[in-house]
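Hi all, long-time lurker, first post. I run a small reading group and we've been trying to get comfortable going from sequence to structure in the token notation. Rather than ask abstract questions, I figured I'd post a concrete chain and ask someone more experienced to write out its structure so we can walk through it together at our next meeting. Sequence below, copied exactly:
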Amino acid sequence: MIWALEQNDPKGLLENDRDEAARLISMNDVEFKALLDRYKYPGRFENEDESKLGSNARDLALPVLKKWNQYIAARSALNGPKTSLADIAIFPFVRQFANIDREWFDAQDLGALQEWLAAHLNSDLFNAVMPKLELWQGGDAPLIFAD
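-- Answer (accepted) --
Happy to help. Here is the structure in token form:
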């Protein structure tokens, strides 16, 4: 992402503190992603401690979500006053996590994070790259993703 944005960064996603962005992305990649996988796919981790799978993994991930909620509440975005590399890198993982059990996610005291997620889900950028399409069925015309 950094290489691509160094070539062209029309939205200024690299303008915030890069070290802080790297720290936040590392928190996602090292801490949160492992818990997301265990929450979303507990059957893939047969040889692991049951206390780290399923809803237990969800509960273990909650402190990370709370940290991110605090950052967003204080800064408007994860890494400063506007959307940055950290937001774009972490948003898809929060989206996946929230969609596993939306009722549980929405019931948590994560107002800033929930608003941040909704804003990204409703953004022009997200809707441009993730358009809603009808489910393709065998026999349908091929769907070509090119402009």
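A couple of things your group might point at:
Helices lie at 2-7, 18-40, 55-75, 85-100, 102-107, 111-121, 124-129.
The mean pLDDT is 91.
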